[in-house]
Amino acid sequence: MEKGWILLGALLSISFGSDAQINSKAYATMLDALYKKTVPLMSVATLQKQPDAILLDTRTKEEYDVSHLPGAKWVGYDEFELNRVADVPKDGNIVVYCSVGYRSEKVGEKLMAAGYQHVHNLYGSLFEWVNEGNPVVNGQGKPTQRVHAYSRLWGIWLKRGEKVYE
User: How far apart are CA 74 and CA 67, in angstroms?
Assistant: First the structure.
């Protein structure tokens, strides 16, 4: 099934060219097909109005070290364990994100199953955050333009920042 979504993303990128915008109909269609919608979605605009949000980055440590949302805590995806969020209140306003929102949805499901009450998946995730002109910081907490684009296939959706693939 995941291969089907990757193929859909590739076909959409070919159909709409490399200039497709993150807020394009093609990207929205791909995201809507990719998400199971088991975790409520939150837009970038809504997140910006939530100063109390607890941001959890579900990408690899290498991706997180390249750049992440300011104040985000790395929790990982393959290596995610609930003990990484033991300090996060069960009633906290939690927003999970990854590159586009697939991995974060899976971690969000685990959080909800563990009793976390207010979990949201950032719609479009890091790519949309950056494409809308919002800042990211590196592993040392310093502002950066570098963004881990996950892979060249998925990197087509990242329109701002300096793409990093390693």
Answer: 11
The CATH number assigned to the domain holding 109 equals 3.40.250.10
Are 146 and 155 in contact by the 8 Å Cβ rule? The answer is no
Please say if the pLDDT value at position 4 is more than 70: no
Q: Is 23 left (phi over 0), alpha (psi -120 to 50) or beta?
A: alpha
CA distance 56 to 108: 9
Number of independent structural domains in the chain? 1
Please, what's the b/e burial string for 84-96 (b: 16 or more CB within 10 A of its CB; e: otherwise)? ebeebeeebbbbb
How far is the C-alpha of 90 from the C-alpha of 117, rounded, in Å?
6
The lowest-confidence range among 22-26, 106-110, 116-120 is: 22-26
pLDDT in tens, 109-131: 999 999 999 999 999 999 999 99
